[in-house]
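In response to reviewer comment 3 from the previous cycle, which asked for concrete evidence that the modeling workflow produces usable outputs, we include below a single protein chain processed end to end. The sequence was submitted unchanged, and the resulting structure tokens are shown without manual editing.
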Amino acid sequence: MRSSAPLPAPQPVPLDYVVHPPPPKPLLLFITNVKNAKTVWVEISVNDNVHMLKRYVSRKMDIPVEDMILVYLGDELKNDTQIKYSSLDLVMQKAAAGEPSAEESTIHLIDIKDTPAEVREPKLTLLDDAHL
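The workflow returned the following structure tokens.
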């Protein structure tokens, strides 16, 4: 039998002691290539930016980052935008309330090489005198 020694008196917490909240849970996103319907999943922090998301997707789909356009709910996700400030906030809200569905967590990937040349490189037309 062990002897029960008295517990030490609690020490006061220093005034400058800061307890940081735990990091946010990662988001689970599904990325679907619109041409061939190949889908991959990616876990990403809401503090990462879209360029980082593209890097993760690039590794899984073997598509260069510079050839990707990511679209969520009709909006293109811009490289320098943090995930938490993008249109993916709907996924974050659903994740906080429970689990979002795969449909709500799906981002569409467009490979620029799969788009028609006219879309990638629109032709410049010169206006004649009648249109000036």
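The first helix runs from residue 50 to 61. We consider this sufficient to address the reviewer's concern, and the full set will be provided in the supplementary archive.
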